Each structure stands twice: as C-alpha cells, then as structure tokens.
C-alpha cells in the first residue's frame, strides 16, 4: 500500500502545476507528509478554490465534527473550531481566522478551503502545518523538507542540471545502473522540476519512491557526469550535475585538438567553490510578470507580455550569476500562473536582498514607448503602517457590549520599511535603462503595486517597454533588445550594490 | 443517567449553541466579500446605468471627469454636466455612470473598458466609497500597468476630486473584493487621490 501511495505521490509531484491549472476537471489530491509517512487528502474544486472535506480530516488529524444550528463544531485535541456555512471567517480556539473562500456544505458534506489547515487546524492542534501549494505537500510538524528546484541548461557539449536546495541539505550523488541517483539528507523533498524537452544528454528527472532522492535518467549521448556543490550562503545550497558526452565521442570530436582525458563514469563529488564574496547583495529574486492563464499585455502582432518577461528574467539571471556570482532565483521557471502573494513570499523565503518584478506595458495609444520603473507608493504603505501602529490589533463589537481584540497578521506592510532603499534601486535602474533603451515620459514613479507590497527587501517593478507599440513589440521579442535590457538591469544592480556598501561603511 | 448529569449536559449544549450564535454573528460582522462592507451607511440598489444617455430632466452640476491624456500617459480632468443627486452615494453613482457612458473630448480616451456596468456604490463610515463594477472591467481590460493605473485612478480621482466627503475609493468586481484589475494595482484596500498621475498642463478645475 505504501509503495502505491508513494508512486501516486511521484505522479502528483511530477504533474505539479499542470494538474493545478487543470484542477477544475480532475483535482489532484494533496499529500500530507508527517512523521508517520505520506497520506493523500482528496481535493474538491469549487469556484476555482481548492477545498478539503472535513470528514477526511478525522483520520490524519484525529478531529471530530458535530453539526449544530447551521454550523459545524470541529474538535481536535480538546479545542474547537467553529465553522459557519458560506462564511469566510471561522473561530479557532476563540480566535477569529479569515479564509480566502467561504466554508461550504455540499451534499451533506462540509468543505473548507485548504488554507483552513494551516490557519485554523494548525492553531488548535499547536502543530506547524506548512502548505506547499506548488508541490501540493502539506508538511506536518518540524520535518526537514527542503525545497529543491531543478533547472536545466542545455548546450551542444552537454547539459547541466542544477538543484537549488533551501534550506541547506546535503546530497550524495551515485551512479546506479543506467541512472544517477541524488540522495538528499532530509525527511522528504519538495521537488519542482521544469518541463524537460527531449535532449541528447538528459531524458528524465523524477522523484524516487523513497521521496528523498531524485533519479536522473541520462539521454542517448550521455557518457559521464561531474557533480559539484556550492553554498553561496547559510540559507541554501546548490548541486550541479554536468552531463557530458561519452569518452569515445569526446575523443572523436577532439581528435584534431589535443584530446582532454574524459572523466571516468563514477566521478568525484567535489565539495564546493568558496562562498561568494560577502557583499551587500547575496541573493536576488527576479519575478517574471504574469504567466500561465494570465497573459498580461498583448502586442498588435500577438507578442505576449508573459513570454517577454520570462525571457528577460532568464537572460538577466545568467548575466548576474556569471558576472557577479550572486545567487538568483526566478519566481517562475516556466509558463505558469503564480499568485501575487506567492511571488513576494518566494523572495522572502529565499531571504533575497533584492526583488525585481519584470513587466511589459501597454497603452491605448500605439505610439507610446519606452521603459518605466516603479517602487511602492509611500502614501498607502505609510497609512497602513500608521493604522497598524494605532490599532495594534483590530477591535470588533462583541455581543453584550464592549469590544474584543482579534489578532490579524498583517505582513502586508513589509515593503514600507524598505521604501528609501527601493527608491535608490529604482533610480539606479532608471539611469541604466535610460542609457541603453530609453524611457517613457513617466520614467520613474510610485504606485500601489500588489506584488511589491509584501516584499521584505528593496524592491522595484520594471516595465521594460510598451508591447502595444509595433516597433517595441518587435524589439521586445528580439534577443538583441532583451540582452540590452538585461545588461542595463545588471548595471543597475552593480550600482545599487555599490551604493548600499557605501552607506554601510 | 442521573438528573444532575442530564442538567449538566443540557447546560453544556445550551452554552455551545449560545457560543455558536455569537460566533456566527461575529462572522457576519467581519463581512463576506460578496456583501457590502460592514459599516455601510447608505446603499444604492445595484442597477445598470440606463441605456439612454440624455435624460435631460432635472438639475445638473458641473463635475470634473478624468480621461486618458492624448499620449495615454496621464489623466486629464474635463468639465462635464452630471445630474445632481441627493447625498454623496447617489452623487457618486451619477459621477461613475457619467464616466462610464460619456464620450471623451477629442484627443482624450476613456480609461474604462467599453460595456463596463456599475453594480452598486456603498459608503463606509470611514468615508471610504466602494464602487462595485461588473466583470467586464477586468475581462475586457487590455492589460499593462499604465492602462491599469489610468483605469483605477480615473475612477478614484473623479470621485475624490468632486466629492470632498470621500477619503478613499475601493473598487469591487462583481460584488467581491478584487486582488488586482490586470495584475498590478493592489485593489484590496481603498485608494486615495493620485495627483501625480494628473497631467500638469491642464489642472482640473474643481466645481464649486
């Protein structure tokens, strides 16, 4: 049975976001991961929200439920959660907790949004319930479940497969028959694998049945591999597997030149380049705007903002990593829908020192062109921060008179603390872009942009150009122009870093 | 089972039901996205604006409506006649209806997707106005942060410039709180007047 379950888990993890996007038809279950192992939890999709049935929580969490007066009382570990049909607010051990969607009663079954688990059930059971939406894992308690993001860079002479591991976990690499097995030292791994087109050196990357190792299936031209690890900072580590051609092929190709000795198949796992020089910026998160169902702006000839932003972000990542040795993460590696909160949370979780959201613009007039840079508008963040300081919690009228305080966690004001640095960053970006691609009439501005609000680090949003302008549509989709934008943003990061280091001294 | 035990059970049940009623009342107070905000002072029934744009009857006031500038980069205030209405909520409704239906002067452009309907207007006791538009405003929006900013702030500025009693404006879509309109501007909170977006060459004149 356990083998069947883990096999199912592998399938879910592999289909990951694709399943989520098409969840309307056949919703993918989530996997509860605890000390006791893995266990599936069925999902029902209603109004684009993922729900779990309260009945199904009894076995994994030991809850009991009792219906009364149009509501439901759920008891776990002697404490109660009160749920009302069609209400987005529940009471968990006396505290009000808001949910992204209302609780529902359908066909005599009570359904609650998935967020009910971490927000309400976690509170009454005093257990950390960590919902990893993208990999569909619900991690119970303090398990070591590092997020492992795989990335593939193919070249004619080989393919490099990189695993970004956060938080840090060590990994052992070994050849096992025709496969390469990467075993992580963890209770489970939260693995994200991009779509892998057929390649000469790499056929497949899958999660192994034990849930803690990754199987790499080499392609037809594969001959040997080399593994290296790197730990750019305390928060994460990186493992790179270089998949190379066979010795005979190498010898053939290098016959004219002096043939380098081919690496023998079972190769060294070399520990580590030194960590990157301790500068003011160690990690950058780039956010390619839109994606998946969210196309963003569209050009007259059909160019899509979501494609341009991903392309520019990838180019910029390569530049930053190769020239500055700074670690770079993208909030999306491919064409998928990513909620705004997940984008800034991704940057926060990676403890990024810099967050740049990349977008392409549109205007009602086709002649408008040029780049623009935004940082969060002060007024709103200010007002919110002030309000929070005044209230220190929200009070509600209580039955029988008086008020009662409730705790609402506002992590929305995170960016307010960094406005000054964000303004410096935006200025640096504006200067570099002006020199290389030209700006619109409103070069640098402040706006209440959703994706910047929760970023807990200096952050800016860059509009790289107007895709609604026919000339710019053509430029924005060209490799040359994208490279110019990436170079400009690289310059800006260098300038910003220098400014930070100056002020730190 | 003893009589005492029965009384005990009854008391526990009664306490449970009472607790339940308290919780559900609180739940309602905390507002659902589908409903108007908790502290609604006045409410106008959700009716689409009339198709006829020339009612002519009744007194009219001069109001400043905001449209996209010729270069589609800023907002330009334009004085137009708008029906006079009783109270800030009805007047706000008249202003939004005018913004949705009137033709901008030559060179300027409307910022709101054609066919967008007004579903309702609500005012909270914090002087925040909630403008409930139908899904068209999102589904027909052509994207881009500049266009999104102009759409949002043509509404916010039209309401806050003409109605001094309104502190901020929050846009709802199909009766629900919206994350954004086209992926950029945070619509989860009421927004204040944005003067930086108003074209400097043509300052809007406030109606007196």
Q: Which chain pair shows the most residues in contact? A: A-B, 60 and 44 residues
Number of H/I helices of chain A: 11
Please state roughly what percent of the residues of chain B sit in beta strands, choosing from under 5%, 5-15%, 15-25%, 25-35%, 35-45% or over 45%. 15-25%
- Provide the spatial order of strands within the biggest beta sheet of chain B: 1-4-5-6-7
Strand order of the largest sheet of chain A: 18-14-15-22-21-23
Largest sheet of chain A: 6 strands, mixed
Helix count of chain B?
4
Detail the poorly predicted runs of chain B.
Answer: 27-55, 202-208
Major β-sheet of chain B, in short? 5 strands, mixed
Domains counted in the coordinates of chain B: how many?
A: 2
Count of the domains of chain A: 3
The SS-based structural class of chain B is: alpha+beta
Query: CATH first level of the largest domain in chain A: which class?
Result: Alpha Beta
Quote the distance from N terminus to C terminus of chain B.
78 Å
Outline the low-pLDDT stretches of chain A: 13-25, 256-278, 392-410
Average predicted confidence as pLDDT of chain A? 80
Tell me the fraction of residues in β-strands of chain A, as a range.
35-45%
Features:
heterodimer; A: 505 residues; alpha+beta; Copper Amine Oxidase, Chain A, domain 1; Immunoglobulin-like; Aminopeptidase; 3 domains; six-stranded mixed sheet; 11 helices; 31 strands; globular; B: 208 residues; five-stranded mixed sheet; two-stranded antiparallel ribbon; 21% strand; disordered C terminus
């Amino acid at each position: 049975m356990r083998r069947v379950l883990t096999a199912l888990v592998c399938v879910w993890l592999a289909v990951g976001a694709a399943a989520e996007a098409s969840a309307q038809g056949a919703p993918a279950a989530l996997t509860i991961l605890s000390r006791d192992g893995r266990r599936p939890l069925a999902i029902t999709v209603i109004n684009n929200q993922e729900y779990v049935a309260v009945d199904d929580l009894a076995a994994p969490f030991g809850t009991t439920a009792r219906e009364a007066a149009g509501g439901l009382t759920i008891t776990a570990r002697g404490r109660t959660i009160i749920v009302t049909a069609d209400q987005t607010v529940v009471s968990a051990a006396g505290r009000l907790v808001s949910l992204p969607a209302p609780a529902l009663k359908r066909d005599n079954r009570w359904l609650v949004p998935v967020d009910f688990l971490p927000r309400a059930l976690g509170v009454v059971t005093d257990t950390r319930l960590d919902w990893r939406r993208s990999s569909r894992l619900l991690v119970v308690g303090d398990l070591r479940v590092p997020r492992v993001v795989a990335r593939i860079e193919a070249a004619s002479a080989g393919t490099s497969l990189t695993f970004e591991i956060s938080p840090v976990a060590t990994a052992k690499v070994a050849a096992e028959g025709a496969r390469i097995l990467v075993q992580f030292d963890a209770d489970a791994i939260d693995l994200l694998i991009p779509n892998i087109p057929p390649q000469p050196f790499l056929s497949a990357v899958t999660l192994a049945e034990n849930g803690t190792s990754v199987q790499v299936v080499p392609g037809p031209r594969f001959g040997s591999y080399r593994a290296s690890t790197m730990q750019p900072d305390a928060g994460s580590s990186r493992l790179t597997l270089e998949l190379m051609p066979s010795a005979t092929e190498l010898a053939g190709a290098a016959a004219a030149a002096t043939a380098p000795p081919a690496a023998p198949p079972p190769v060294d796992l070399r520990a580590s380049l030194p960590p990157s020089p301790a500068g003011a910026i160690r990690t950058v998160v780039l956010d390619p705007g839109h994606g998946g169902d969210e196309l963003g702006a569209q050009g007259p000839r059909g160019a899509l903002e979501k494609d341009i932003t991903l392309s520019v972000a990838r180019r910029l990542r390569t530049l930053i990593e190769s020239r500055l040795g700074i670690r770079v993460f993208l909030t999306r590696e491919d064409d998928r829908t990513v909620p705004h909160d997940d984008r800034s949370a991704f940057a926060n979780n990676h403890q990024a020192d810099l967050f740049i959201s990349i977008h392409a613009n549109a205007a009602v007039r086709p002649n408008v062109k040029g780049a623009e840079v935004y940082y969060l508008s002060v007024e709103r963040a200010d007002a919110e921060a002030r309000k929070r300081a005044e209230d220190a919690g929200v009070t509600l009228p209580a039955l029988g008179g008086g008020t009662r305080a409730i705790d609402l966690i506002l992590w929305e004001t995170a960016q307010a603390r960094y406005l000054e640095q964000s303004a410096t960053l935006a200025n640096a970006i504006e200067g570099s872009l002006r020199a290389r691609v030209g700006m619109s009439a409103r070069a640098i501005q402040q706006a209440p942009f959703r994706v910047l609000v929760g970023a807990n680090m200096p952050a800016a949003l860059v509009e790289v150009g107007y895709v609604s302008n026919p000339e710019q549509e053509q430029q924005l989709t060209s490799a040359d122009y994208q490279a110019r934008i990436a170079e400009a943003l690289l310059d800006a990061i260098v300038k910003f870093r220098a400014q930070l280091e100056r002020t730190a001294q | 089972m003893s009589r005492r035990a029965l009384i005990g059970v009854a008391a526990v049940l009664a306490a449970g039901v009472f607790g339940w009623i308290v919780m559900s009342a609180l739940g309602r107070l905390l507002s659902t996205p589908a409903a108007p905000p908790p502290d609604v002072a006045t409410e106008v029934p959700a009716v689409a604006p009339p198709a006829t744009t020339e009612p002519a009857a009744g007194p009219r006031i001069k109001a400043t409506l905001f449209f996209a500038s010729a270069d589609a980069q800023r907002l330009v205030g334009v004085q137009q006649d708008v029906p006079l209405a009783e109270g800030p909520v009805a007047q706000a409704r008249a202003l939004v209806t005018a913004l949705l239906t009137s033709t901008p002067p030559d060179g300027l452009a409307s910022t709101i997707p054609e066919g967008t309907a007004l579903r309702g207007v609500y005012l909270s006791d914090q002087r925040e106005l909630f403008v409930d538009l139908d899904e068209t405003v999102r589904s027909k929006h052509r994207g881009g942060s500049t266009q999104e900013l102009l759409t949002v702030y043509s509404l916010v500025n039209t309401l806050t410039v003409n109605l001094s009693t309104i502190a901020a404006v929050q846009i709802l879509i199909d009766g629900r709180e919206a994350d954004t309109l086209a992926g950029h501007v945070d619509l989860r909170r009421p927004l204040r007047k944005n003067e930086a977006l108003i074209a400097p060459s043509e300052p809007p004149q406030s109606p007196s």
